[in-house]
Amino acid sequence: MTGNSIEAMVGGEKRTFAAMELPRPFLEWQSEARMRMFKAMTQGGAGQVRVQPAHLPVLATWDAGDGAGDFPVNLSTRGMGILPKADKLAHYTSSLERARAESAGRPIQETLPARLRAMEAFYVNVDNFDTRLLGGLDIFEGQTAKNMEHNPRVALLYTGEAPKYPSFQFNAVVEKVLPGNPHYQFLLAARELFATDAFHVHQDRYPFGYICKIVEIKDKTPFAHAASRSRPAGHPGGPPGGLDGK
Ligand SMILES: Cc1cc2nc3c(=O)[nH]c(=O)nc-3n(C[C@H](O)[C@H](O)[C@H](O)COP(=O)(O)O)c2cc1C
Q1: Atom of ligand 1 nearest to the CA of 147
Q2: Would the pLDDT of 236 be above 80?
Q3: Could you count the other beta carbons within 10 Å of the beta carbon of residue 15?
Q4: pLDDT greater at residue 86 or residue 204
Q5: 124 lines ligand 1 (CB under 6 A)
Q6: Which of 31, 117, 188, 196 sits in a 20 to 30 Å window from 82, CA-based?
Q7: How many domains does the structure of the chain reveal?
Q8: 31 with 125: CB under 8 angstroms?
Q9: Can you give the residue range of the structural domain that contains 108?
């Protein structure tokens, strides 16, 4: 990424995309949803985490190979995180790594408050966030990984909780990041901090990380569109209370 432009190889051709900023309502939702989750964990332990829509979007990739068949789109649920701004990346990575090191060998319930405090220090303030990037770690090296290798254009769909149902599609160009890369190390530190708590699928290794550089944004939040139309509650595009049929 150089300034506002992102270069990527697509089908053997060099393409250039314009970088975009994640919308403020999305960033605020990310902060609020994580802080709510951390509070619930502080009060009731890690077992409180049953769903995490702010952390688990659907990632769509495209199989451009000969065997793609009639349905080349591949979908997978992915744990995705916000990344710190470049000038704060090293600081938050070391503070998460330190919290983990200090917890090593102690009972997970006893160390949970300190681990949560380390995460809260980052997620509490939207100004800590890199507004152009989202990142995740690949575990299984499956179809998603194969597709991203051949075609770095991906789409993420986030859908949040009632009553607002924040929902966004982000089209992005992915960059693979390997162990040692500062973004990979932050994603790893954030994930490892809760690696042994109940809600995580336990993993021994993460072969690579991927940074999604945002190039297109579609606000799919239903009620954001309602203001411009007048539809009764209960109808798609109508005010809150409509989507669940109540
Ligand atoms: C709640 C949940 C979280 C997941 N998080 C990740 C993740 O962070 N990284 C990953 O590689 N796979 C993750 N998976 C697994 C993927 O959804 C999927 O099974 C995997 O990518 C294999 O599918 P594919 O061959 O289409 O890529 C997660 C699955 C679920 C249900």
Answers
A1: 27
A2: no
A3: 13
A4: 86
A5: no
A6: 196
A7: 1
A8: yes
A9: 5-224
Atom 19 (ligand 1) nearest CA: 76
Q: What is the pLDDT of residues 139-190, one digit of tens each?
A: 999 999 999 999 999 999 999 999 989 999 999 999 999 999 999 999 999 9
User: Does 230 map to a domain?
Assistant: no
Question: What Rg do the C-alpha atoms of the chain give, in angstroms?
Answer: 19
Instruction: Find the CATH number of the domain harbouring 125.
Output: 2.30.110.10
Residue 87 has a pLDDT of: 98
Q: pLDDT-derived band of residue 234, with 50, 70 and 90 as boundaries?
A: very low
Q: Is residue 243 part of a domain?
A: no
- 3-16 tens-digit pLDDT: 799 999 887 889 99
Nearest CA to ligand 1 atom 6: 78
The dihedral over CA atoms of 21, 26, 27, 28, expressed in degrees to the nearest 10, equals: 140
In a domain, 110, yes or no: yes
Residue 230 has pLDDT above 90, yes or no: no
- Does residue 193 lie within any of the structural domains? yes
Cα–Cα distance measured from residue 194 to residue 155, given in angstroms and rounded to the nearest whole number: 27
- CA of 52 relative to ligand 1 center, distance in Å: 14
